[in-house]
């Protein structure tokens, strides 16, 4: 945890406005969300602050691990487009993982490389350093920032900080990272001359930011109970997972070494100490206690999330379904098309008569736009090797299925391979290819073994070997390209375990056909809005999956069916997909 060699403190630049087109557009944005007074509630000096342990934004130098980081990047982009004063606080990890696969005599094996990342190459400016107390030492963190229109990214970092999610989830190093983000990040805000109007905590790893604020208020003379009320009323906890059992626990001894040394107020220390049960603490329980505002990331998620406060009462969550930054993830040609058709407005929200405008879309339009998307996909595939180290080119006349999600149990990437003969029949009949990509979390031996079995299955079958391709080291670039260039998206999580998901949103806005179980944010609309996988058992779901895959493939060969399915998806999901809608929902909830 030694301090990095410092750089001269930069000269602070004034906040640069990022207009949409002109000041009237900014006023129109606020009118659109029915909150003219927000410019008074949120200002450049008192911004909306968004805390996340993970950011997935390679353009700005930080590679995340999955949907949480992608969502964080999209939220900031949408805030910039709307000229909302917004500060995202996150660690800058000085090293990142990359996954690779290669074939050997004993089958496929994977390995991981670790590459250093230099924040100076991405336009960050060094502000100063802050200190936190951890494990009997003073840890010195560099504070860096990057300004993007009305928004900023503020990071804490040091050479020993490690990679995202390094170490065990309940281990000392993970706790150090979370404490550094919370206490170090809160000091970083003060260095930048900022006070948070609201603190949005994305998942429980960011709890320590709100704790730092509570401690500052209580140690600076505010009555403790008033400090608790103030902190609670200005803190939003956003939960992103339905699997509470997966959450790590920390011990009282760990808090004595990493957390309590950073607290100045005896009352806050006593308050926190009382939250331990049998010498351990779950951060979800104490995060619920420090945040009066709580949100889930889809209607289904908010309804079924099973979290309880320390008194045993079930906690209610407000539904704010995730959204995406449409210009980032959508083909430029499709964005232009939807704008010219007056289906999306300048804020990428559906227009008042978007349903009628969608009816004017033709199969010819869809096929032409997807042909351009295929060319863009192939330009990316030209430098992304498959499991054999070869580079793909998917022909224009070939159909393309794709699965692009984290490789975790509940997302079930293996499901389409359950009956290889059925899969082969579909691929051969429709001149189709299947691209599979996703990252296995380091240490997840079960999922790594499942992936190896899929690769071995493909390798020992000539038809599958020709038509099924695994692309390792999944990232933003590959995810975007597949949404733009593929025809059919496979999304088959176990119903009840997907909080929202956003990959499917990118597929729909790029006019792909979605084959999915009715889970997460997809359940915001009816199950007849897309090709829904049904069944009461996994065997029934597998049968339904193959039927839907066949139906989707047939649709691309029959213009009437193609138009019908794509239009139905766009009508149902464009309001859900919009990142501007998401930000609007948050602002209305908060203010």
List the helices and strands and how they pair.
Layout: H1 23-32, H2 38-41, E1 48-51, H3 67-81, E2 86-91, E3 95-104, E4 107-116, E5 125-134, E6 137-148, E7 151-157, H4 172-191, E8 198-202, H5 207-219, H6 224-233, E9 235-238, E10 249-251, H7 252-258, H8 266-273, E11 280-282, H9 283-290, E12 293-296, H10 299-304, E13 318-319, H11 326-329, H12 332-340, H13 354-358, H14 363-381, E14 399-404, H15 420-429, E15 432-437, H16 445-459, H17 462-467, E16 468-471, H18 476-485, E17 488-491, H19 503-509, E18 513-517, E19 531-533, H20 538-555, H21 559-577, H22 579-590
Helix pairs in contact: 3-22, 4-5, 5-6, 14-18, 18-19, 19-21
Keywords:
19 strands; six-stranded parallel beta sheet; disordered N terminus; nine-stranded mixed beta sheet; Rossmann fold; alpha/beta; 591 residues
């Amino acid at each position: 945890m030694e301090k990095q060699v410092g750089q001269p403190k930069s000269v602070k630049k004034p906040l640069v406005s990022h207009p949409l087109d002109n000041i009237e557009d900014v006023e129109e944005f606020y009118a659109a969300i029915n909150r003219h007074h927000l410019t008074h509630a949120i200002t450049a000096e008192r911004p909306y602050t968004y805390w996340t342990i993970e950011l997935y934004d390679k353009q700005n130098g930080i590679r995340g691990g999955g949907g949480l980081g992608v969502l964080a990047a999209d939220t900031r982009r949408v805030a910039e487009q709307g000229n909302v004063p917004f500060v995202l606080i996150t660690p800058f990890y000085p090293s990142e993982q990359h996954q690779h696969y290669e074939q050997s005599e004993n089958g496929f094996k994977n390995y991981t490389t670790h590459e250093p990342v230099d924040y100076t190459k991405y336009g960050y400016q060094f502000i100063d350093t802050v200190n936190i107390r951890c494990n009997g030492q003073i840890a010195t963190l560099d504070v860096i920032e990057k300004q993007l229109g009305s928004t900023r990214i503020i990071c804490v970092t040091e050479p020993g900080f490690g990679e995202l999610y390094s170490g065990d989830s309940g281990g000392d190093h993970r706790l150090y990272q979370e404490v550094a983000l919370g206490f170090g990040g809160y000091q970083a805000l003060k260095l930048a001359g900022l006070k948070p109007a609201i603190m949005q905590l994305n998942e429980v790893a960011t709890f320590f930011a709100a704790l730092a604020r509570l401690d500052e208020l209580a140690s600076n003379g505010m009555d403790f109970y008033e400090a608790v009320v103030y902190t609670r009323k200005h803190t939003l906890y956003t939960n992103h997972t339905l699997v509470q059992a997966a959450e790590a626990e920390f011990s009282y001894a760990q808090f004595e070494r990493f957390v309590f040394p950073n607290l100045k107020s005896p009352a806050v220390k006593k308050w926190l100490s009382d939250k331990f049960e049998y010498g351990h603490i779950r951060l979800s329980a104490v995060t619920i206690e420090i945040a009066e505002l709580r949100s889930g990331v889809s209607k289904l998620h908010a309804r079924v999330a099973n979290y309880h406060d320390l008194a045993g009462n079930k906690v209610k969550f407000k539904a704010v379904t995730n959204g995406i930054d449409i210009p980032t993830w959508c083909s430029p040609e499709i964005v232009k098309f939807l704008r010219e058709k007056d289906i999306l407005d300048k804020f990428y929200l559906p227009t008042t008569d978007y349903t009628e405008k969608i009816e004017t879309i033709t199969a010819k339009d869809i096929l032409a736009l997807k042909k351009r998307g295929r060319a863009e996909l192939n330009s990316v595939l030209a430098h992304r090797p498959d499991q054999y180290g070869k580079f793909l080119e998917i022909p224009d006349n070939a159909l393309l299925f794709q699965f692009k999600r984290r490789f975790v149990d509940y997302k079930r990437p293996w499901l389409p391979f359950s009956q290889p003969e059925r899969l082969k029949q579909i691929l051969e009949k429709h001149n189709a290819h299947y691209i599979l990509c996703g990252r296995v979390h380091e240490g997840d031996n079960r999922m790594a073994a499942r992936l190896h079995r899929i690769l071995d299955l493909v390798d020992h079958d000539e038809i599958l070997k020709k038509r099924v391709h695994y692309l390792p080291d999944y990232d933003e670039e590959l995810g975007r390209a597949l949404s733009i260039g593929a025809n059919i998206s496979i999304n088959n999580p176990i119903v009840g375990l997907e909080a929202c998901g956003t990959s499917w949103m990118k597929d729909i806005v790029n006019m792909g056909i979605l084959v999915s179980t009715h889970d997460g944010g997809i359940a915001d609309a009816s199950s007849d809005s897309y090709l829904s996988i049904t069944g009461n058992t996994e065997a029934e779901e597998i049968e339904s999956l193959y039927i839907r895959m066949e139906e989707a493939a047939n649709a691309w060969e029959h213009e009437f069916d193609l138009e019908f399915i794509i239009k139905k998806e766009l009508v149902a999901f464009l309001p859900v997909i919009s990142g501007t809608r998401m930000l609007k929902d948050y602002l209305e909830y908060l203010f």
